[in-house]
Amino acid sequence: MTVYRDKKLNHNRPDITLLRKDTQRWTLVDIAVPADQNIIKTEEEKMAKYQELAFEIKRIHRASKVTVIPIMIGALGTIAKNAKTWHGNLAIPDIVGSAQLSVILGTAHVLRKVLCF
Hints:
Blueprint: E1 16-20, E2 25-32, H1 39-60, E3 65-72, H2 83-90, H3 96-115
Parallel strand pairs: 2-3
Antiparallel strand pairs: 1-2
């Protein structure tokens, strides 16, 4: 969902936008599958990338709280140390193990296609 506002921002489309209308709490979720050695760097970039958007949402929509949650799973299933905290903030069942399995199977599929040309 594109978040519309009066000022031009380069990053205005997080992967998932959650809005609780009763409390005016927004959650911006951005998902990436970087190389394993780039997980922390990518997580920091995602957080910085959406901070300006979070500020604008708070200002324009009078949101009580805006949370940015980066979800990073490395191409070989590696996760950041604070991934459990981010998933806990989403208030969803623990899906880290399933997501890791899905990423590993996807990577294996890509490797099979490339190596078997």
